[in-house]
Amino acid sequence: LAYGLTSRNPYVTLSNIFGCIAAVGYVVGVLPLLGAKAASTEGKKTLRTTQSVVIGGAGIVLSLWTYLGLSNLPLTQISEFLGFFASGLFIIFSASPLSTISTVIATRDSSSILGSLTAAQCINTSLWSVYGLAVKDKFVWGPNFIGLGLGLVQLVLKILFPAKTKAV
Predict the structure, then answer these.
(1) Is residue 156 part of a domain?
(2) Which helix (H) or strand (E) is 108 found in, with range?
(3) Is 168 contained in some domain?
(4) Around Cβ 43, how many Cβ atoms within 10 Å?
(5) What CATH number should be reported for the domain holding residue 44?
(6) How far is CA 154 from CA 25, 32, 128, 165, in A?
(7) Which residue spans traverse the membrane (predicted)?
(8) pLDDT, tens digit, for every residue of 82-114?
């Protein structure tokens, strides 16, 4: 969102406003579910970890935006810094479903990778890659090409190791 604002790109900005709202909605929706599980020691730990990540992450991002906003750096330099920052975060998010890759291969079961999320990632990153190339913005096409590659790896794992169904 901040990169879209500083690069004055209305498409990146507007799409990320909705993404930010959806992310806040997700956290607001998930925290009560984690709180309900907090009766157990593991549930309390999961809730505290999630809260710490959300609060810590928000603190880091807001501190970065504040520093850059109050600095005397040229807008182009601020935009480039935010572009690298956003690209790095996006690549981490795109790769996160692959955190279970060793389990998927060992068990020959891809049920830990959500097919609908994989399809959405491939479609989304394909479209943003094409747009990024069209407007010649490396911070749009670069991380999205990487995200597309990571999505295709997930898709290949889904094909090679179909999710095993549980017998009822």
Answers:
(1) yes
(2) none
(3) no
(4) 14
(5) 1.20.1280.290
(6) 26, 30, 19, 19
(7) 12-33, 53-70, 82-106, 113-134, 140-161
(8) 999 999 999 998 998 888 898 999 999 999 898
